[in-house]
Amino acid sequence: MQPKILLVDDREDNLLSLQVILEPQGYEFVTANSGRQALKILLTEFDFALILMDVKMPNLNGFETANLIYDREKLKHIPIIFITANNYGDENMFKGYQLGAIDFILKPINPEILRAKVGVLIDLYKKNRLLVEQEQKLMEVNRVLEIEINERKAAEEKVQQVNRKLLENLAQLETANNDLDRFAFMASHDLQEPLRKIRIFSLMLAEKNKDFLPDDNAMISRIDKTAERMQTLIAGILAFSRVSTEKTIFEECDLHALLNEIVSDRDEELKEKEATVLIESIPCLFVSPMLMRLLFQNLINNALKYRRKNVDTVIRISSKICKARNDGVTENPVNNYCRISVEDNGIGFDQKYSEQIFGMLKKLHANNEYEGTGIGLALCKKIAEIHNGTISATSRENEGSTFIVSLPLNHDDCPEPGAKQNSEG
Length: 425
Hints:
By secondary structure, this protein is α/β, with parallel strands linked by helices. It folds into 3 domains: 4-114, Rossmann fold; 153-245, Helix Hairpins (Orthogonal Bundle), CATH 1.10.287; 251-413, 2-Layer Sandwich (Heat Shock Protein 90). It has 11 helices and 12 strands. The protein has helices spanning 12-22, 35-42, 62-69, 89-99, 111-152, 156-208, 218-245, 255-265, 267-272, 289-305, 376-386; strands at residues 4-8, 28-32, 48-54, 80-84, 103-106, 251-254, 275-279, 284-287, 313-322, 337-344, 390-396, 400-408. The strands form 3 sheets. It has a 5-stranded parallel sheet, sandwiched between helices. It is globular.
C-alpha cells in the first residue's frame, strides 16, 4: 500500500508543484484547497503518513487548521510540515512548533530538501506500520498456538512441535522488541531538537517583550519549565533504551565500595536534606559496575525524593545471602541469591501498588507534589533482569519503603562476560 500524503494549499499551482516534486517517489496524494476541505477529508480518512500544509490560506489558515486537526485523538499521530514564506520569522515558527508541527519548509521550495524531509517521515511511517503488523501477526500466532496446546496437550509429539514454534515466536518477539527499543531511542533523540528550539524561542520571546510582560513572566516560565521536564523525560527514555540495547560487561565488583563512592559523591546533597545513609556489609558480586551504580543511584534518589517532612531521613542498605534448597539431583544448588535491601523511612505507599511502580512512566504522585519521570524504577527493574535477578518492594504509608534487589551469587547463574542482554547477540 502506497503511503498517502495530504496536500493542503489554496492555490492549484502550488498543489501541482508539490505533486510534481514528490511524484517520482511513488506516493499517493490527496489534495485540499482549504483548511475546511482538509478537515472534511480527515473525517473519513485517517491513514495519512504526512500532511504538507500552507500556512497562509483564507478563512482558516494553516495554524488554525492544525489546531483543529490535533483536537481529534485519531489524527494526533499524523505529522504536519508547514510550508511558509521566508518573512514569517521565528515567532510564527514557534507558534507552529507549539501546535505540534514537525518541521517548516520555506518558499521558494528546494525540491531536494522537500524530498529528503518527506522521505525521512515516510520511512518512519513505514517502519511503524511494519512493527504494528509484526505485533498483530505474533498475537495471532500465539492465539493459534494456545488453541493447539489446549486441544492436543495429551500428545507428546505435538507438544514438542508446539514448543519449537513457541521458541521461534519468542525469537521473533525479541527481534520486534529490539526494533521497538531502537525506534524509541531514535524517536527520543529526534525529539530533543524541537524541545531545544522551544526553550530558545521562549527565552527570546521573554527577552524581546520584557518591557511589556509582568515581572515574573509566569506563562513563559511555564513553557520553559514544561520543555525542561520533557527533556528530562526524554533523557530517561534514552537511558532506558541504551540499557536495553547496548552491550553489557560483567566483572567481579566490590558493591560495598561502589555504594560508598555513590554516597560520598552526594555528601553535600545529603547534608542539605539532613539525610543519613547507613551501609552494612555488601559482598562482591559478578555484575556490571556501571549498571549497578545506575540502579543504586535511582533507589537512593527515590528515597530522598519521597522523604517525610520534619523527619530526619535514614536510608539503610544491607544484604542477606539466600541459599537454595538442594533438589536432590545436583550436589550444589546453583540458584543462591544475594538479597540487597534499600530501606528508608519516607512517606511509603499502599502495598497494592508494589508491582505497578516498576511500570514504564508509572507515577503514584502528581508532578506538582513530587517531580519525576516515572522511568527510574522501570530502569532498576530492567537492570535487575539483565543480571538474571529481580527487584521487589514492600511499603506502608507514612512508615517507609524497602526495595529488595536479588542478584545471583554464583557466576554460573550470571550472564557471560561481554554478553548483550535483551538483544540479538
